[in-house]
């Protein structure tokens, strides 16, 4: 029995005993029964109320005290719906094969779809209606395409990667499917670029060497154009020469796309070290230059003079100012003060130095290779050292303006011949790239230095002589040869030539020190 029930029973018995005791006292005192009953009732109610309160508190005590309620999970079996058809539809929607393709010269949108395995008339028609997707209709050779194609030939997406004039102008043209709809986008894109070094020995001409060294065809084509002109080491490449290249490889979305720009080339042969480095003007145009800022390829001066004043244009028919006879004037006449310097228009080899009393007077003819020749006539005299077989560089002094031959005044008559045909030098399609400015030259040298170091390491790893050491010896030899030629010319003229010397070398009694130069007596009259 609970404790609260025992307490309540005890209190009830106590109340009845109190009521009986009150009645007995009342009889002894002579009180009325009603008065005794009411007073006893009040006392009993008080006692019973107290007992009930205690009993209630005892009963509610456990409920009011903190306690923990344990929850018991219930498992209810529910039948899952059949979603196999929905899952199959989603799976079919996301199943496609990624494909990659490089555009060839004959490709159209139709051949592109066929080669990628796309059989989707909706996608083809959509491309024709969207102006921003026009590049898909006329793709260019070398462009890269990626596509996602379902097993049924449905197009999920297709991207065409386009090169910009600058690296940050590249973009992708994209058509993609969302559900049953097609959308198009043009998004900016930058190719990832990796520089690749090729180094080895030539086994013959360029074609054979390219196959041996696994040089890509697009890079080989660029190499052919580096030294276009009279002195082209690529054209004269033979077994035993060393060839080193650095070129770019382009990647899109982590996948190789194509080979990019040739950055540097070095050929070491019996004649010395030939180097050229790519330099871009930042607007997409560029060319190859040597480390002294000169164009590596042959370029032409359209006006090979210090002074230029055109006095007679190139013309198919002109009345000669001396003879009065109508005849073609296959050249351009430049008025200039007598004695003005005449410059070689481009690199080449002197083929003729002659005199015609009834024609050109003193003139020089230069062969620039590639069936290009130039002629300079009516010279006052030819510059010293200019004779048949001599190699000249663009801008070298070859003679001086005069009026020898049939001429009415001092001027230069300049002719350009390509493939045996007289061409107007002012309008001919000639490579005329200018030399780099001092600022551009500094940029070129800074960008070329890491490439030079790679060439140097490659040569040493192959057990080859240092290209830089060979170039230093080559420069010293050229300087010595120039000094020797100058000494010979001065000796023939009986003149005294000044040249710099080291003070430590002043031991010859025939050498008289003057500052940091010396007077070398070369013979003739003193």
TrEMBL record:
Stretch list, region Disordered: 476-495, 503-526
Gene3D superfamilies linked: 3.10.450.350, Glucose Permease (Domain IIA)
Signal peptide: none
GO MF term list: metal ion binding; metalloendopeptidase activity
Bilayer-spanning residue ranges: none
GO biological process, one term: proteolysis
InterPro entries in the cross-refs: Cell_wall_metabolism_enzyme, Dup_hybrid_motif, M23ase_b-sheet_dom
Domain (M23ase beta-sheet core) ranges: 328-425
CDD domains: M23_peptidase
UniProt superkingdom: Bacteria
SUPFAM superfamilies documented for this protein: Duplicated hybrid motif
Keyword vocabulary terms for this entry: Hydrolase, Metal-binding, Metalloprotease, Protease, Zinc
Cofactor(s) needed: Zn(2+)
Pfam families hit by this protein: Peptidase_M23 (PF01551)
PANTHER family cross-referenced by the UniProt entry: CELL DIVISION PROTEIN YTFB (PTHR21666:SF288), PEPTIDASE-RELATED (PTHR21666)
The protein, known as: M23ase beta-sheet core domain-containing protein
